[in-house]
Amino acid sequence: MTKILLVEDDRGIVANLTEFLTAEGFQVKSASGQASALKLLESERFDLVLLDISLSDGNGFAVCSAVKSLYNIPVIFLTASGDEYSTVTGFELGADDYIPKPFRPRELVTRIRNILRLTGGTGSSVRLGEVTVDTVKGTASKNGRDLYLSALEYRLLLVFLNNRGAVLTRTQLLEAIWDAAGEFVNDNTLTVYIKRLREKIEDDPQNPTIIMTVRGLGYKVDG
């Protein structure tokens, strides 16, 4: 059974999320602060950490840094801090995903399962053609060279990775990168970010072979 550490100081969220995730087949333990979270990590093995930034003591960034350096397991941030600085900081520390509150529990479960599938529960590199995505470090490289993706570009790439083989509509992609930006993202902005991402990962951005356009429907990355 997949074991999740929920680091959150809102008792209501802890109770509701624990009940929901348990019903979905996960084993959940919780900690309200940095010290108690690190103590649990020292004594027990977990497959994934759900982590708030604002805690009763310390902060989520410090916990994420410790998790990645000492235990190398996936981290998903759950936070009301939707500004781009928090997003960038989280990804720089190696966070695997970032979900702002309020969120839909069903979407959270999907994200958890996608991250566990991608990382094998322990963190790993994922290949997409000649592009390698390190879901532990939150970086992407091509032929060994860092692509220096922005937070939104990396988030967009993760969305495609998590949905290989599926056609994603522009609406779905807009909702996903809005999560990372913490602000309204319009259709023109999505076009710009897809163009920028293609310029970094495709051999020929004018004739893409990784992020392909499905006319009248959206975009698709093959599995």
Word description of this protein:
This protein has two domains: 3-119, Rossmann fold, CATH 3.40.50; 125-220, Winged helix-like DNA-binding domain superfamily/Winged helix DNA-binding domain (Arc Repressor Mutant, subunit A, Orthogonal Bundle), CATH 1.10.10.10. Helix content is 44%, strand content 20%. It is built from eight helices and twelve strands. It has helices spanning 11-23, 34-43, 60-71, 84-92, 105-119, 151-162, 170-181, 187-201; strands spanning 3-7, 27-31, 48-51, 75-79, 97-100, 125-128, 131-134, 139-142, 145-146, 167-168, 212-214, 218-220. Strand 3 (48-51), helix 3 (60-71) and strand 4 form a beta-alpha-beta unit. Helix 2 packs parallel to helix 3 (60-71) and helix 6 packs across helix 7. It starts with a strand and ends with a strand. The relative contact order is 0.10. The model has no long low-confidence stretch (mean pLDDT 84).
The biggest beta sheet is recorded as:
5 strands, parallel
**Structural class of the helices, strands and pairings?**
alpha/beta
**Poorly predicted ranges (pLDDT <50, ≥5 residues)?**
none
* CATH-assigned homologous superfamily of the largest domain: Response regulator
Q: CATH class of the largest domain, please?
A: Alpha Beta
Radius of gyration: 17 Å
Trace the largest sheet across and list its strands: 2-1-3-4-5
